[in-house]
Amino acid sequence: MARLSSLVSSLERAGLKGAHTQLLQLAQHRYAHPRHRHFDEWQHHVDSLPEVAPSFIDLDRAAPVIGREADCTGEQHALLKQSLQALCPWRKGPFSVFGIDIDAEWRSDWKWARIAPHLGSLQNCSVLDVGCGNGYYALRMQGLGARLVLGLEPMWVHVFQWSVLHRYLPQPQRIFVLPLRLEELPQALSGFDLAFSMGVLYHSRQPREHLSHVFKVLKAGGRILLETLIIEDRAAEALVPVERYAGMRNVWVIPSYTLLKAWLVEAGFDQVRLLDQSQTTTQEQRPTNWMTGHSLVHALNPNDTGQTIEGYPAPLRACIVAEKPA
Question: What is the pTM of this model?
Answer without folding.
Answer: 0.96
